[in-house]
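re: ur question from yesterday

yeah so i grabbed the chain u mentioned. its 257 aa long if i counted rite. heres the sequnce exactly as i have it in my notes:
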Amino acid sequence: MSADTRVVGTSGPRPLRSVKYGFILAIVSVVALVLSPLLYRTGLVGLAALVLIPIAVLFALIALILSIVGIVATRRRQRSGIERGVVGLVVSLLVLTFPVVVALNARGTAPIHDVTTDTADPPEFVAALPVRAQTGALNPVEYGGPTVAAAQERSFPDIKPLRLDLAPSTAFDRALAAVRAMNWELIAADASAGRIEATDTTALFGFKDDVVVRLRPDGSGSRIDVRSLSRVGGGDLGANAKRIRAYLQRLGESHGG
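ran it thru and got these structure tokens back, copy pasting raw so excuse formatting
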């Protein structure tokens, strides 16, 4: 009798240890994956909560291997072992889809966290500075210069200023309405300076990213520049560029309507 299969009385053989441990690790991995964003949102452990993600992926990978080995090795009459092995297999695969989806979404994006429609003269944050300081933002507001600009151009060549055939005062009202329509948290709206500052919170982890919208006269119309800056993280997986695209699209549609 294999040392990995144990028989107790007449209750029949128990599942292989590989199935048992694979099932346990699969459950632990999904718990860790769920806890990571929940703990980060509470603010109790900060960025340390993100460590649970690679731990969850590692456990899921081990669980996947153990479950496959257990399913193959378990004899057909050990029905409970097969079922538990299948559950471990499915759960571990579900957990492993998370990094795959993240990698696919990040494909082709530069590892930057600061995106702007004007890389030569980026809009500056003013009212957001004390907010960022209070929340312990790790990323500086100083723009990264030509290196970041070149990386953005390679990954997001479509991020360009928006020009509206509207007087600056009218364009400002439209821009402010678009900020509110995006459900961003408004920090400040300075019509005289042509500057709007706001904060957007990501859906899953609740990361805070700050946005500044700048309006300037452009002939008989107005030019709108936008900058989106993450408070933490070396790369944003394309989130800031996506945010700017969505905002400019909404603003352009409101003008067209």
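noticed a couple things. The longest strand covers residues 208-218. also Helices lie at 17-42, 52-73, 79-106, 128-134, 146-155, 168-181, 239-256.
anyway ttyl
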